[in-house]
Amino acid sequence: MVPSALALLLALGAAATALAEPLRFVDCGSVDGSIQEVNVSPCPTQPCLLHKGTSYSINVTFASKIESQGSKARVYGEMLHVDIPFPIPEPDGCKSGIQCPIQKGHSYSYLNKLPVKSEYPSIKLIVKWELVDDQDQMLFCWKIPVQITS
């Protein structure tokens, strides 16, 4: 990314006044969908500072390229290129803001929570969030840098 585009993204992110701030993210393999926006609230700057004992709101707007009866989320903490499963309260995408069945060409807002448990270590890592369809193909996959802190 060129420096001026990065500066523009930073300015747009800083100008966001909604409860959730649009984030810079890496698409890590969205095959059956395309991500339009990722929001984590609160996360005013990146890397997101995730405080232990706090829950964060996740909102992903995406468009589906396929039809699917359902969807399932998988979340990981990526450290040293190893994915460590990160449990979330509701892995069923159809209970997380998505009206199922998912229809081709429609946009959806996926809503969930990311709880940061008190027992997690204070560490920098990458959060990797996947939503898969009935065929276990990725509707979306995104990654953001975070720092877990007390």
Account of the protein in words:
The protein is mainly beta and 150 residues long. The protein has a single domain, classed as Sandwich (Immunoglobulin-like), CATH 2.60.40. The N terminus is likely disordered. It starts with a helix and ends with a strand. Strands 2, 4, 6, 7, 9 and 10 form a six-stranded mixed β-sheet that branches. The chain is 9% helix and 47% strand.
Strand content: over 45%
Instruction: Name the shape in a single word.
Output: elongated
* Low-confidence runs: 1-19
Determine the CATH topology: Immunoglobulin-like
Along the chain, the helix and strand elements come as HEEEEEEEEEE
Largest sheet: 6 strands, mixed
How many domains, as an integer? Answer: 1
Signal peptide: 1-20
Protein name: NPC intracellular cholesterol transporter 2
Keywords: Disulfide bond, Secreted, Signal
Pfam family, one: E1_DerP2_DerF2
Blueprint of the fold:
Elements: H1 3-15, E1 21-22, E2 26-27, E3 33-41, E4 48-51, E5 54-64, E6 72-79, E7 82-85, E8 107-116, E9 124-132, E10 138-149
Parallel strand pairs: 4-10
Antiparallel strand pairs: 1-3, 2-10, 3-5, 5-8, 6-7, 6-9, 9-10
Features:
Immunoglobulin-like; disordered N terminus; 4-stranded antiparallel beta sheet; disulfide bond; ML_Npc2-like; secreted; elongated; mainly beta; 150 residues
In short:
By secondary structure, the protein is mainly β. It has one helix and ten strands; from the N terminus they run αββββββββββ. The chain has one domain: Immunoglobulin-like.
